[in-house]
Design a protein that fits this description.
This protein is of the alpha+beta class. It folds into two domains: 9-170, Jelly Rolls, CATH 2.60.120; 178-282, Orthogonal Bundle (Arc Repressor Mutant, subunit A). 51% of the residues lie in helices and 19% in strands. The chain has helices at residues 32-35, 100-112, 120-138, 143-170, 178-192, 199-205, 210-221, 225-243, 248-254, 260-271, 275-282; strands at residues 9-10, 20-24, 39-40, 43-57, 60-65, 68-72, 78-93, 116-117. Strands 2, 4, 5, 6, 7 and 8 form a six-stranded antiparallel beta sheet that branches. The protein has a two-stranded parallel sheet with strand order 1-3. Strand 4 (43-57) and strand 5 form a beta hairpin. Helix 2 crosses helix 4, helix 6 (199-205) crosses helix 7 (210-221) and helix 8 packs across helix 10. It starts with 8 loop residues before the first strand and ends with a helix.
Length: 284
């Protein structure tokens, strides 16, 4: 693997003035960009009608078989591994085109991030919406009205994916309102893990006591606050160790640690290997 100073981060500006990119999976050879590890600032929805394909998302292989959908969230490190006779679409949407009223579903689904199956009716709805959106982008006729129409159709498409993900979440959903609090914590953690390390500070941000937040999160996930805070930090550390050429010291500073030795001890305790050993062994 070629060593890079940082993980590439892409946005949709070079590809679309609308903040949308649609790629037909059928007979399409993946570009070098999607075959190399990178992050995107936007959402990416995969709508697979048939066939098999696989992605690597944050060190987890996601296998897609037959009729399924999944989402790659902004900031996740990912790349395409393979596709075999897969048919469907890959749709990238700027975050502004994903309505706020469905983002909570995406935030919840982010934790599981598993492929979701859907029936023929859902497939027809989604495919028709994608094709209409593609037609509007490729054949603009009225700048003013096309812009509003494209945004509205994008909202519909994001909502359809959210509905599928919601169905998957509902299979294991608890009636306890503490689920909502757990998701709020996870969302805050993903945004603040580089600067906030204390369970007490996360609880303060949510205007509750650390003891109560810990109780709720442990009840719903099986693990305490400290575990999830550490896991988020270690995941980002692994990303930087594997995909970049940052030094251990630079990675420690990037993650908010002024003492690289302390960071190395934390990494060793969590993973069973030193940061340097992880880098060397994972790249073999």
């Amino acid at each position: 693997m070629n060593s890079k100073k940082d993980i590439p981060v892409y946005n949709l500006e070079p590809f679309s003035k609308w903040g949308i990119f649609i790629r037909n999976m059928s007979g399409n050879i993946a570009s070098s960009r999607v075959e190399q590890a990178h992050r995107d600032e936007n959402y990416i929805f995969i709508f697979q009608e048939s066939g098999t394909s696989s992605l690597m998302i944050d060190f987890k292989e996601i296998k897609l078989q037959n009729r399924v959908s999944c989402c790659i969230f902004p900031g996740q490190v990912h790349y395409e591994i393979s596709r075999f006779e897969s048919k469907g679409y890959i749709i990238a949407l700027d975050t502004d085109l994903v309505p706020k009223y469905v983002r909570n579903t995406f935030d919840q689904f982010h934790i599981a991030n598993i492929p979701c199956e859907f029936d023929a009716i859902w497939a027809k709805k989604i495919k028709s919406t994608i094709q209409l959106l593609e037609l509007m982008i490729e054949n603009p006729q009225s700048e003013k009205y096309d812009s509003n129409s494209i945004k509205s159709i994008s909202n519909v498409l994001a909502s359809l994916f959210a509905a599928i993900f919601h169905q998957e979440l509902a299979k294991n959903e608890s009636d306890d309102h503490s689920e909502t609090l757990t998701h709020q914590f996870k969302k805050l953690l993903q945004r603040e893990f580089k600067t906030i390390k204390s369970p007490k500070d996360y609880a303060g941000k949510l205007n509750i006591s650390a003891a109560y937040l810990n109780q709720v999160v442990k009840k719903n996930t099986g693990m305490p606050l400290s575990y999830w805070i550490q896991q988020e930090i270690i995941l980002e550390a692994k990303r930087l160790l594997f995909f970049t050429s940052f030094t251990i010291k630079e990675i420690a500073f990037n993650l908010g640690y002024e003492d690289p030795a302390y960071f190395s001890r934390l990494f060793l305790k969590s993973t069973g290997s030193t940061p340097l050993s992880f880098r060397e062994n994972s790249r073999k």
